[in-house]
Design a protein that fits this description.
The complex is a heterodimer of chains A (623) and B (112).
Chain A (H helix, E strand, L loop, with lengths): L1 H4 E2 L6 E2 L1 H12 L12 H20 L5 H11 L6 H9 L16 H21 L4 H23 L4 H16 L2 H9 L2 H14 L1 H11 L9 H30 L24 H24 L10 H21 L17 H10 L4 H7 L10 H45 L3 H15 L4 E6 L5 E7 L9 E7 L2 E8 L9 H17 L2 H19 L10 H6 L4 H16 L4 H24 L2 H9 L10
Parallel strand pairs in A: 3-5
Antiparallel strand pairs in A: 1-2, 3-4, 5-6
Chain B lengths: L4 H20 L5 H15 L5 H14 L4 H28 L3 H13 L1
The chains are: A mainly alpha (623), B mainly alpha (112).
Chain lengths: 623, 112
């Protein structure tokens, strides 16, 4: 730069060739090219590319190649304010979200779209062209729902290529929700497609629900209040469904009303009265009156001491029988003698009962609302509620984990960049090897293996954690101290499952030694430091903690102290700087947190001890 | 440098320009374009500042050299901006006869 700008001279300053060039430009060019005072390699290459492009154009001059046709098609409908749509179209990731046309005519997958979908949506789409933008937006969502429902019915028979755009859309919808995004991110890439398939296969109702959530109707639960509300809702639904089922069964068996303790059921139960209309009752009453009149008629014809030559006695008996039957029917509330329905026959079918019993199971829609996994859909409603209640207890910590995961992911990206820079400057082999080890640890996302030990160092359990807190495929040593479990050490790059029994025992002993070496105060400090970092990383741009977090902390041991500490940090954070800086600080803090995690744990006594023992050396290349 | 939505669109448009140009010139076929677009859509979501942008463009150019130019332009943007400012200030200083200050100023850029 210095050389480019100013050439060194003795006594008198001369302007360098570059500055001269600037001056010359101002003379020879109508518009001074002040924005690009110095040509870069990029500028030269750009020029070369333009030349090459020109030549190519001249040489080929073809407009019918698939590439040229595609380019032309994209250019025609290209919106400079929405380049993402064009990129998605090029990538074959056509979205069917609001306001987007399905009328696409190139590519295999899009042919399918044209044939299978457009006919179904075109009518919908015509309906949404309205002056009123808001109404149009609403209708667009409605019509999209309709489209989804149509699509899902045929989904099972689709090929992978045909499924792709729909999967993309569902993934897109899920990503609109924090929990959906976290869920998808937590899945290995190979499992995302099958997961989306399973979601799509559930039924259109659930997808529409998901769709509603995507448009902000109701977010997937990730805090205690929402989960608790879902639990309450499920409980009410369960109560209603169970009552309905009991009523239906009682009706079938002929018992009246709800069967309760001590009330005779089944054959012993009182026969149910079939409801009749007022008109039917009036008609029945009239039949009874007629029957009585007939009885009087025939009884009047019977004269004591005189021979019954007209068969009046038989007619009288028939009239009496008929009257009695009518009286019985009236008492039972039947329509009359011609009514074929008998008491107890209520029209209750096995299918109706089966359907209701099925409803006792949790609907997948409710599962989605509760943020539970789909497996839970097979649970009885009661079990589901129990699970939900359990989830409600842990809801905030999960939200915390998700928040941290996002933060860690961003921090990881920053650290990657930083490591790349550091590698360039690294001079010794050891430095390079260390950086490579860190890089490898970051890129190896096998899932973290946690070894939980008691205070005595005894391994209590090894668990695999599948959420995104697991980034490095390392073994973490967690210490269980009463109800608290916190991380004491991390063994980078080691999958606990791959250890031999001997290595496992060695690990147990060394862990015990390492933990024993830590004083209770050290443990407490470790725990509080980890919590502080976590909570500080959660401070939002407005300087507040996420909803419910403060309440949650207040219920925990040391919670108030943590809030005070974080509040102090927040004060410092915003003092005289303004809210805009808070976001920057937050980023910096995450970066710092990850760096601290990376380096802090690598330098823990345990790591050093393991390295010393030759079990694992984090500074050795390949680990 | 903050990475705004507008800036993201600007980069996407530049990439799109290059893809479309490549398609027209037969440098890419539609399959290539699909791969590039997918790559861009996934990776650009992780871009949040100029540094990550340059990193992303580096990856892009590594896979498809046709984007090397764009990478180099963006990579040099910060430096060029600094250079522009220094050129202006140095010129002003030179005009005022403050030669030593102008030299010192250029040295600061060199050291940065």
């Amino acid at each position: 730069m210095k050389e480019a700008l100013i050439a060194r001279q003795t006594g008198e300053l001369t302007i360098s060739s570059n500055l001269n060039r600037l001056n010359q430009r101002s003379i020879f060019m109508p518009e001074p090219a002040a924005a690009v005072p110095v040509f870069t390699k990029g500028d030269i290459k750009e020029g070369a590319l333009r030349l090459a492009t020109k030549e190519t154009r001249t040489r080929t001059g073809e407009e019918n190649r698939p590439g040229a046709v595609l380019a032309k098609s994209i250019e025609e409908k290209r919106d400079l304010n929405d380049p993402e749509s064009a990129l998605r179209e090029l990538a074959g990731q056509e979205r069917f979200d609001e306001g987007q046309s399905a009328e696409i005519d190139t590519g295999k997958g899009r042919d399918f779209v044209e044939k299978s979908f457009v006919g179904k949506y075109k009518g919908d789409r015509k309906g949404i062209v309205r002056e009123d933008e808001e109404q149009g937006k609403y209708d667009s969502i409605v019509s999209s729902k309709g489209r989804l429902e149509s699509v899902i019915k045929e989904y099972a028979s689709f090929t992978d290529a045909q499924k792709a755009p729909i999967r993309n859309q569902v993934a897109h919808m899920l990503r609109q929700m924090p929990a959906g995004e976290a869920l998808l991110s937590s899945l290995p890439p190979t499992e995302v497609g099958p997961y989306l398939d399973s979601l799509i296969a559930q039924s259109s109702t659930e997808l529409v629900q998901v769709y509603n959530e995507a448009y902000g109707v109701e977010p997937i639960a990730n805090n205690i209040d929402v989960v608790q509300a879902n639990v309450d809702k499920l409980k009410t639904t369960l109560k209603n469904k169970e009552k309905e089922l009991r009523d239906l069964k009682a009706k079938k068996t002929g018992s009246v009303g709800l069967p309760t303790e001590g009330v005779p059921r089944g054959e012993e139960a009182v026969k149910v009265k079939i409801p009749t209309t007022r008109e039917e009752l009036v008609s029945l009453e009239q039949d009874l009156v007629d029957a009585n009149e007939e009885i009087q008629l025939w009884s009047g014809k019977l004269i004591p001491g005189k021979e019954d030559t007209g068969g009046f006695k038989d007619r009288l008996d028939q009239a009496i029988t008929r009257r009695d039957a009518l009286r019985e029917a009236f008492k039972e509330g039947r329509k009359g003698l011609g009514d074929e329905k008998q008491a107890g026959e209520t029209g209750v079918t096995e299918e109706k009962i089966a359907k209701l019993e099925e409803d006792i199971y949790i609907l997948p829609r409710e599962i989605a609302l509760a943020g539970l996994d789909l497996e839970t859909a097979k649970l009885d409603r009661r079990e589901g509620i129990a699970k939900l209640e359990e989830r409600a207890k842990n809801a905030i910590p999960e939200a915390v984990a998700r928040h941290l995961n996002t933060a860690m992911e961003q921090a990881e990206q920053e650290v990657r960049l930083e490591i790349a820079g550091m590698k360039e400057k690294a001079t010794t082999g050891k430095e390079k090897a260390t950086l490579e080890a860190v890089e490898k640890a970051i890129s190896t996302r096998y899932g973290l293996k946690e070894v939980i030990t008691g205070r005595n160092g005894k391994i209590k359990k090894v668990r695999e954690n599948h959420n995104r807190t697991n980034m490095y495929g390392d073994t973490r040593i967690l210490i269980e101290d009463g109800e608290d479990v916190y991380m004491a050490a991390i063994i980078k790059g080691v999958d606990h499952r791959t250890l031999t029994p001997e290595q496992r025992e060695e690990l147990r002993v060394t862990t015990k030694d390492a933990i024993s070496a830590l004083k209770p105060d050290d443990l407490k400090r470790l725990k509080i430091e980890a919590q502080e970092k976590l909570i500080t990383s959660m401070v939002k741009a407005d300087g507040k903690l996420p909803s419910g977090m403060e309440e949650y902390l207040l219920d925990t041991k040391d919670g108030q102290g943590l809030i005070d500490k974080v509040a102090d940090k927040r004060k410092g954070m915003f003092k005289g700087i303004g809210g805009r800086v808070s976001e920057y600080f937050r980023t910096m803090d995450r970066k710092k947190a990850l760096k601290l995690l990376l380096w802090f744990f690598m330098s823990l006594p345990l790591s050093a001890y393991l390295a010393h023992k030759g079990i694992f050396n984090p500074f050795k290349s390949g680990n | 440098m903050e990475f705004s939505t507008e800036r993201k669109k600007e980069i996407e448009n530049k990439i799109l320009d290059l893809i479309l140009e490549g398609l027209k010139k037969d440098l890419f076929n539609p399959q290539d374009a699909a791969k590039i677009s997918s790559f861009v859509l996934v990776k650009i979501a992780l871009v949040f500042d100029q540094a990550t942008l340059v990193n992303f463009l580096y990856d892009l150019a590594e896979s498809w050299p046709e984007f090397t130019n764009l990478y180099e332009i963006e990579d040099g943007k910060i430096e060029r901006k600094l250079e522009e400012n220094v050129v202006k200030e140095a010129l002003a200083l030179v005009k005022e006869g403050k030669i030593d200050e102008a030299l010192t100023l250029t040295k600061t850029v060199d050291n940065s």
